[in-house]
Amino acid sequence: MDQKNKVTIHIGNHNGMRNALNGKGRIQTTIESLMRCCPFVTSTDLRIIDNFSTDGSFEYLSGLRFGKLERRPRIEASPSWMATTINNLRSLSRTVLSSDRDYVWNIENDSFFYDEDFFLKAVEVLEANPNISLVHLRGYVPLDSINSPGVPRNRSRVSEIRRSTSGFDFYIKEKRPEYALWIPLESWELGLNFKPDENPGLGKCPVGVNAIGALRRDQKGGYERLLTEYWNSYVSNGWIARKVDLRRLLEHYNPLGERQMAIAFKKHFTAAKLSRDAFVCFGWKDRANPREEEVLDLFKRLQSGEDFRKRFLKVRPDYEAGRITIPDDKINIYD
Fold first, then answer.
1. Would the pTM count as exceeding 0.70?
2. Domain assignment of residue 89, given as a range
3. Who is most buried in 40, 134, 186, 285, counting CB within 10 A?
């Protein structure tokens, strides 16, 4: 069987016309860059699930002459990030459980693809390494680190470099037993006018508290940030994975959101990362909030071959474990 026919591609969408670039919404940029790098997507098993978008993105997707488009109601929850993580996993689950292919490729609607060789490499890694369940495709750039200090470095930890059967190198993602790690930051990640947040919370950077996201000073006077470890194994987008392993997690754990999925994945499976990244997310907001010209300039630099991995990729980093210990059966972020 042709490798391209072994994969079901999943794209989730909700109001994908935001983050417009050159007058095109994020879902349009995603689809167009995907078609440019992977023309075969127009003739393979592509599933698009829309959560009742109201901004015209559903109509745009309806006009595509390829793929299977489905519209499903959106589960409402507060805060908004909770609704996002619940709906993202719910849509992905529907694709995983209905696919008849060996692998599932998960794409979110703010993905700009710039590499053309990643697909066959990712499938080769999975075919030749039965102990690897998922291959990460996402690249991290300075804007990611400004928006979420320490996160790109935390999610770029690797324990081993392997050589594929056809001769390219790929990385085995590190798994550590700790719940959280202190991730070192560089001064540019926080910005010149950085002011710590007063209280902890999603995306917050407080000082002097024992909470995920908190900052502390290191011995050299810089900052470290306490971040959850398991996201290095599984993230919510940008990968190709074994369908049977994803299905096992969904059926056994019935995770409500992506965080529970990540925790379950770390328990059972191992992930890898290619030696060249395939895409970058561009839906930045909050801390980064870049101008349109900054994002477009970044896209040009990526397409010209600029590589940001050296800023973040670390082999067996000796990051200190955090003192937060939470038994897995006690974790419930939805209370």
1. yes
2. 3-176+230-318
3. 134
